[in-house]
Amino acid sequence: MLHQISVDQITRQFKAAFFDLDGTLFDSEPLHAQALVKACEQLGINLEGIDPLHDFLGKPDPAVYRFFHATKMVPQGVSQDNFINAKNSHYLANCKDIPSSKWDDFINPGTRELLKILKDKGILVAIVSASEEAIVKSMISNSGIELFFDHVIARGQCFRSKPSPGPYLSALRHWGLKGHEAIVFEDSPTGQKAAVLAGCELIRVKTFTPQANDNLEAIDNFFRLIS
What is the CATH number of domain 7-28+106-226? Predict the structure, then answer.
């Protein structure tokens, strides 16, 4: 467990830094929830008794669909692909509607500053996300931080998604690294479990997803690491 972690310690101790996207780099869970509501309205899925923002925090779209299917909420003929395509279509439309001047309202404070330091120090930087590649690339491109990332692991690029360690193991294999050589930033229990199982050092990001876990180093925003 790390204590009082700083960017200087990160650049000395690790060769790579892996960032989750939703809830870690961006306050995007409300965007996902909004897209989910629109997709369910489109497909005839009744969300009565469901809190779209909190009930599916950190869960990939296939897991959400499986929940709906298991609880018999999915109308006949609506496949997993139908559901995911509808939800992602609404999500991408929401992203396009955000003016460039408003992206700072969604990005974690200190993100650009931290990423620039890591890049300048030669640290390998990747996004490891349960979102689809189109969503990941839309987020980092529209917000202007795409140039800081050397690699992206998105949903569909691994056989299993978080909480499986597969996505983080894939990122490690990409550069031939061992788990202890990478530090992971995650907000949700699902992603945190994946990082730990992959053998990586973990920092919990509680900017947008506050949770109690005294066993993990936690930061409120990325300026915390720089200062």
Answer: 3.40.50.1000
